[in-house]
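ok, trying the design again with the full structure, not the truncated one.
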C-alpha cells in the first residue's frame, strides 16, 4: 500500500494500468489497494474515467535521509507509516534494548495519546508525531522541568518557522490565540534514582485544516501562516532547537531556562483555576520555580504545584 501511495503522492493523475505496471500487480489489485488507502488512512482519492486516480492533495512524506541532510545528528530516525503511537513504539524499543538516543516518527497514529489519557487526533501525513528517547543518568535531577524545556524548544521552532504568535501554557501546551497547536507528553521507564530512559513525546498540528474529532479549540501551523509546511524541515529545525536546550539544561539545570520560559508564558499574572481530580484551586499565576512547578498566589499566599494530572484553566473573571 505504501508503494502505491508513493506513486500517487505527487497529486497528479495516474492510470490504473500505469500503476499496475509500476507495482507488478493487476488493475483490480490496484483498485483494492486504493480502497484500503481511503479506508485505513482516511485519504481522499479522485477517480476520473479516462484519466485515472489522483490524491485530493499532494503528499510530502517523512524521509529520514531528507531530515539528516538538513540537520545531521546522532539520533537514528525510525519512521512508520501507521502505528498505535510513537511513544508506545519508543517504549517497546527500549524494552527490546534499542540503544538511546533515537527518534520515532509516524505518518499516522491509530491510538495517539495526550496528557491525562486524552486521545491525540493523528491524521495521515498532515501533522508531526514525534518521540525522542534519551538515556538519563544521575537520578531525577536530570529530568526536573524537562517537559517545560521541550515545550520551549517546540515553541521557539514554531516561531522561527513563521508561527510568530506561539506561546506557552503550563505545563505542556503550546497555544496560538488561545488555541492548542502542540502538546508534550513525557514518559519515564527504569530506575529514577539511577539510570532510566525518558521518552519526549511531541505532537504538532502542522498542515491539518479541519477535523471534528478534537474536543477543544485547536489550530495548526498551516492555518496560522496560510501556507503548507514541509514536515521534514520541521523535524530538522526541532532537532536543532532540542539539542540546544537539552544541552543547556544538562549543563546548567532548569534554572538557566526558567526566566526565558516565564517570558513566553501566556497566562503569566492571569487568574486561573487549577484542577486536580475533583478538586479546584483558584489563584493567580506568579510563575514557575527552579524545578518547573507552578507558583500560584492563593488567597494572598504563594503555593507551589506540580504533577502530571494537573490541568490549568483561565478563570471566567480573568
Amino acid at each position: 500500500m505504501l508503494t502505491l501511495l508513493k506513486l500517487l503522492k505527487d497529486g497528479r493523475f495516474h492510470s490504473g494500468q500505469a500503476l499496475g505496471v509500476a507495482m507488478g500487480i493487476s488493475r483490480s489489485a490496484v483498485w483494492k489497494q486504493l480502497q484500503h488507502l481511503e479506508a485505513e488512512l482516511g485519504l481522499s482519492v479522485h477517480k476520473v474515467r479516462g484519466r485515472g486516480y489522483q490524491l485530493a492533495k499532494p503528499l510530502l512524506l517523512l524521509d529520514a535521509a531528507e531530515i539528516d541532510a538538513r540537520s545531521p545528528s546522532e539520533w537514528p530516525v525510525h519512521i512508520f507509516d501507521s502505528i498505535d503511537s510513537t511513544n508506545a513504539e519508543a517504549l517497546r524499543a527500549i524494552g527490546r534494548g534499542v540503544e538511546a538516543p533515537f527518534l520515532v516518527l509516524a505518518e499516522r497514529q491509530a491510538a495517539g495519546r495526550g496528557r491525562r489519557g486524552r486521545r491525540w487526533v493523528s491524521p495521515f501525513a498532515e501533522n508531526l508525531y514525534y518521540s525522542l528517547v534519551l538515556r538519563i543518568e544521575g537520578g531525577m535531577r536530570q529530568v526536573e522541568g524537562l517537559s517545560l524545556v521541550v515545550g520551549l524548544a517546540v515553541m521557539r521552532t514554531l516561531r522561527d518557522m513563521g508561527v510568530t504568535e506561539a506561546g506557552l501554557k503550563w505545563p505542556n501546551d503550546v497555544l496560538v490565540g488561545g488555541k492548542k497547536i502542540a502538546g508534550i507528553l513525557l514518559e519515564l521507564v527504569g530506575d529514577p534514582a539511577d539510570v532510566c530512559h525518558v521518552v519526549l513525546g511531541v505532537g504538532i498540528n502542522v498542515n491539518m485544516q479541519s477535523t471534528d474529532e478534537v474536543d477543544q479549540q485547536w489550530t495548526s501551523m498551516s492555518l496560522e501562516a496560510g501556507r503548507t509546511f514541509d514536515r521534514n524541515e520541521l523535524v530538522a529545525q526541532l532537532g536543532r532547537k532540542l539539542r540546544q536546550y537539552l544541552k543547556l539544561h544538562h549543563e546548567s539545570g532548569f534554572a538557566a531556562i526558567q526566566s526565558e520560559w516565564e517570558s513566553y508564558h501566556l497566562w503569566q499574572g492571569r487568574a486561573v483555576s487549577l484542577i486536580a481530580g475533583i478538586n479546584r484551586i483558584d489563584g493567580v499565576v506568579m510563575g514557575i520555580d527552579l524545578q518547573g512547578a507552578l507558583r500560584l498566589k492563593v488567597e494572598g499566599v504563594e503555593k507551589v504545584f506540580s504533577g502530571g494530572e494537573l490541568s490549568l484553566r483561565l478563570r471566567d473573571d480573568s
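Keeping the full-length input from now on. The chain has a mean pLDDT of 89.
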